[in-house]
UniProtKB/TrEMBL annotation:
SMART domains: BTAD, LysM, Trans_reg_C. The keyword Transmembrane applies. This is LysM peptidoglycan-binding domain-containing protein. Pfam families: BTAD (PF03704). Residues 138-184, 214-320, 347-374, 606-636 are annotated as: Disordered. GO terms for molecular function: DNA binding. Residues 140-167, 284-296, 353-369 have a biased composition (Low complexity). InterPro entries: AfsR-DnrI-RedD_regulator (IPR051677), BTAD (IPR005158), LysM (IPR018392), LysM_dom_sf (IPR036779), OmpR/PhoB-type_DNA-bd (IPR001867), Sig_transdc_resp-reg_C-effctor (IPR016032), TPR-like_helical_dom_sf (IPR011990), WH-like_DNA-bd_sf (IPR036388). The chain crosses the membrane at residues 12-37, 71-93, 114-134. Residues 179-236 form the LysM domain. Belongs to the AfsR/DnrI/RedD regulatory family. It comes from Actinomadura spongiicola. Keywords: DNA-binding, Membrane, Transmembrane, Transmembrane helix.
Length: 894
């Protein structure tokens, strides 16, 4: 029998009744107790003899009984008052109040229910006063909009008066209360929020909107976000409300979430709700995921100072110089691939004496996408830019992708669920859009998270001239007909696993057995006409077993999109037609896709050819000398830095670590523009100075000539003004222009990297081992952090890597010189080297050899274990030479 929901008037009356009951319990009860039984406080403290005598003699007048009743009555009132205050504070703060001890738990539950009912007075009254025009349709997969693109509300910034214009614009209509949904077995507020908004962190919004809903008879009220029951009713606030999630804490929350509820590292809350009753992590298979924009795919709108930027700064997509348009999700995955490639290179560390080949820079499209990701996600919000190792560590907890972000509409990303998706693409932009979808899936495929099944002819069409062997997650079949049995076999395998584990769907199965590889599957193919019946039967099972179908052509079932050359949807048919009509889909050129797939191959440690087929990266002008001829640069630094003035120079520029300026009184924390900070770092790498054109090319490559010139002049003026204000000395220029070249004034600015360069040069040119050892020891003390850790330019990363390798080589050389005379100091130098590069396997081999010579066999085993732990982050293990050092340990003498 269907129970009719209570009316708003009923909810208001119920709230007033709860308020009356609460007033009686908090105010009426103490008044009554005081009138009948008197004050709970005794006139005096009885002695032990009086207490003993009272308990031993008969209670003829029932005085003792009445006293106990009075004490219990006052105690109950105090407990209820404390519980009410606790719940009220939690309600006002917007979080669940802490649970009180079990004996007083019923009083807390009563107070919680009363306060929840009291809030009906305000929430229901607000709903009653909301005008009918405020209702706005919620765009979801199961409730598509009826007005097409015109129903998408735009986000207008908060109005501010400008120059006396004190007439505010017409305020936007109030947001609707949202839609109501029934909780199914296995649901959690986290999973419901992730499906509804793309971010599990918004579960608090659902709880706040749902705790006042009247539940059906026999169903408990929603009083704790950690405890939800099947049959409860919840309210989902509108998907397009302007809700801002707090930024995540780096490195603090990936371990706090259950495996089935982990999301992208920069989209997790610090405290996630526990799983609700039922099977952990289940998702009701009969409810399709809503079509909303994920905040992970739609970062705050900030202009990106890079060659990879969007024409509209509010557009969440990234436009590359080649014309490709990608999402931040693909850019983030490529950023991880670049990090993994570098760590694999570091593993095979070789010094210059071994003729180590120069590292190949990332292809231009990949480098541009990586910079856009780091800028938008970290640098633009003044958050620390993660290192390569940090990115890999975050990637280890990333779950399989359960949705795909197709593109944007009205500056909002459009996301569809992978499971059960059947999408057909036609028109001039179909192949470019399909190329972007499949490339993003392959970029997220490592660690058995996703798999692309594609016939060879379609792969040749989408990726012409691209070597597809060795790309993780890619399975090629001869034809579409041979791909269908592959899907059928996978479905049978997953069905057996679900039956054996007694789990209803793939999400629950992954939570039950995280070690079982169950990647998200996508079949991308051209379907013959007529469509094979086996394919139609398989696609209907996609929602339950976690796979989708991308058809290069019209989709016989599902949604078909007709795309223009720039991948704009002009017409759509199917379930998601209204959502996708007018959308601008992400798309990739074949050259950009080739470069990205090349990076995905090297990210798993595949050998890199000496001449890459990927497009060459954009060269860094003016810094080639600093990065490839460091010896000359260091010598020039010595000539520019006057001796004897290191302690008297009023300004210290720190470029090892975050770029910062310091005076003798402390760091300069205000006044320095971001562009000025970047220019200072660039000047620190060029002791001979730079021209204005070189600075513009390195720092403002995407600006128009006039705008770039103004940006450079503004940065120079900001440096001079800030330093004059900080030091109080106005005569110096600080940044000198000589013969058309700008350089830092060495008489007033001391750069920490200059001291490191000096030590490197002295170690290289030392005549004796003693002088060389002294210089090398100074290097170990001077290299405190990586170069410009908060900058993301290509030239910064090149110089950062060059400087790091130079220091590692110096520490290795120091260990070689000290190994026989001072083995303990040699060990310390090598241990410091692996703190700067924990993936360089030859360094661990050297440490194990010295520890073995010293008879420290247990320490050598621990060194091997430490290397194994680090290499596991990049899905590899120590090579045979290192393993042989371990197996030979028992035979070594102590």
């Amino acid at each position: 029998m269907t129970v009719a929901p209570p009316t708003r008037i009923t909810e208001i009356l119920r709230g007033f009744c709860a308020l009356l009951i609460c007033a009686v319990l908090l105010v009426g009860v103490p008044i009554g107790l005081y009138a009948v039984a008197g004050s709970p406080l005794p006139d005096h403290v009885p002695s032990w003899e009086q207490v003993t005598a009272t308990l031993m003699r008969p209670d003829t007048g029932n005085r003792l009984f009445l006293s106990v009743v009075r004490l219990l009555g006052w105690s109950a009132w105090v407990v209820f008052t404390i519980a009410t205050c606790t719940e009220a504070v939690g309600c006002l703060a917007g979080h669940t109040a802490p649970a009180l001890p079990r004996p007083v738990r019923p009083a807390q539950q009563l107070a919680r229910d009363l306060l929840a009912a009291i809030t009906l007075i305000f929430s229901s009254a607000t709903v009653l006063t909301t005008p009918a025009s405020a209702a706005t349709q919620v765009v979801t997969a199961d409730t598509p909009p009826t007005d097409g693109p015109s129903t998408s509300p735009s986000r207008s910034p908060e109005w501010e008066p400008l120059l006396g214009d004190d007439t505010p614009p017409t305020p936007p209509p109030e947001q609707p209360a949202g839609r109501t949904q029934i909780v199914h077995r296995g649901d959690t507020l986290w999973s419901l929020a992730r499906r509804a908004y793309g971010s599990g962190g918004r579960y608090t919004k659902i709880f706040a909107a749902s705790r006042t809903i009247d539940q059906p008879p026999g169903v408990p009220a929603l009083t704790d976000p950690d405890e939800i029951s099947p049959g409860q009713r919840i309210r989902l606030p509108p998907a397009r409300t302007n809700i801002e999630d707090p930024p995540p804490e780096r490195g603090s929350h990936s371990e706090r979430l259950p495996t089935s509820e982990r999301h992208r590292s920069y989209d997790r809350p610090t405290h996630a709700p526990r799983e609700g009753r039922g099977t952990p992590g289940n998702r009701p298979s009969e409810v399709p995921a809503p079509v909303v924009a994920s905040p992970v795919e739609n970062p705050p709108s900030t202009p990106v100072p890079t060659t990879a930027r969007s024409g509209n700064p509010n557009n969440p997509g990234i436009t590359l110089p080649s014309g490709s348009h990608i999402g931040i999700g693909l850019a983030a995955a490529l950023s991880l691939a670049v990090a993994a490639t570098r760590l694999h290179r570091r593993r095979q560390y070789r010094n210059s004496a071994q003729d180590a080949p120069a590292d190949q820079p990332a292809p231009a499209p990949v480098a541009q996408a990586r910079k856009a990701h780091l800028d938008r996600t970290y640098a633009a919000h003044d958050a620390p830019v993660p290192s390569d190792a940090d990115l890999i560590a975050l990637d280890r907890t990333t779950p399989p992708p359960d949705s795909i972000t197709l593109g944007t509409r009205d500056n909002t990303t459009i996301t569809l669920p992978f499971a059960g998706l059947t999408l057909g693409l036609t028109g001039d932009g179909a192949h470019a859009a399909a190329r972007a979808i499949t490339t993003e899936l392959l970029a997220k495929a490592p660690r058995d998270r996703a798999e692309l099944l594609i016939p060879q002819p379609d792969a040749d069409t989408l990726f012409p001239g691209t070597a597809l062997d060795g790309i993780p997650g890619l399975t090629l079949t001869p034809t579409c007909s041979t791909a269908i049995p592959e899907l059928e076999a996978e479905i049978a395998h997953r069905a057996q696993l679900m039956e054996a584990a007694d789990q209803p769907d793939l999400i629950a199965l992954r939570a039950t057995d995280p070690a079982e590889p169950l990647p998200t599957l996508l079949l991308t193919a051209t379907v013959p006409d007529p469509t094979p019946g086996a394919l139609q039967a398989v696609t209907h099972l996609g929602h339950r077993y976690g796979f989708g179908t991308l058809i290069l052509g019209p989709a016989p079932t599902g949604t078909t999109l007709h795309l223009t050359e720039d991948s704009t949807v002009t017409r759509a048919e199917g379930p998601f037609a209204d959502t996708l009509t007018g959308a601008h889909l992400f798309h990739l050129t074949s050259d950009d896709a080739n470069a990205m797939l090349h990076t995905l191959r090297t990210a798993i440690g595949a050998p890199e050819p000496e001449t890459s087929t990927a497009p060459p990266p954009t060269p860094r002008p003016a810094t080639t000398r600093a990065t490839t001829h460091s010896e000359n640069a260091s010598t020039e630094t010595l000539t520019l830095a006057p001796t004897g003035q290191d302690q008297t120079r009023p300004i210290r520029l720190q470029v090892l670590g975050p770029v910062r300026l310091h005076t003798t009184d402390g760091p300069i924390t205000t006044g320095v523009r971001r562009s000025a900070r970047d220019l200072l770092a660039y000047l620190a790498t060029e002791p001979r100075g730079i021209t204005r054109e070189q600075a513009i090319t390195a720092l403002w490559p995407d600006h128009q000539p006039d705008a770039a010139t103004n940006a450079f002049n503004t940065a120079v003026a900001n440096i001079r003004k800030t330093l004059r204000t900080a030091t109080g000395v106005r005569e110096p220029m600080y940044l000198i222009r000589t013969a058309g070249r700008y350089h830092l004034d060495p008489s007033y600015i001391d750069v920490d990297q200059q001291h490191l360069n000096t030590a490197l040069t002295q170690a290289r040119h030392a005549d004796t081992d003693t002088a060389r050892i002294d210089a090398l020891k100074r290097i170990a003390d001077l290299y405190t952090a990586e170069f410009a850790a908060d900058l993301t330019y290509d030239w910064v990363e090149n110089h950062r890597e060059h400087l790091r390798r130079a220091v590692i080589e110096a520490l290795t050389r120091l260990a070689q010189l000290l190994r026989h005379s001072h083995p303990e100091q040699a060990l310390a130098a090598l241990e410091q080297a692996i703190t700067h590069d924990p993936y360089a396997e030859p360094l661990y081999q050297s440490i194990m050899k010295i520890e073995t010579d010293l008879g420290r066999l247990d320490a050598a085993r621990r060194t091997y274990q430490l290397l194994t732990l680090h290499l596991a982050n990049i899905d590899t293990e120590p090579d045979d030479r290192t393993h042989k050092l371990l197996t030979d340990l028992p035979s070594q003498g102590r």
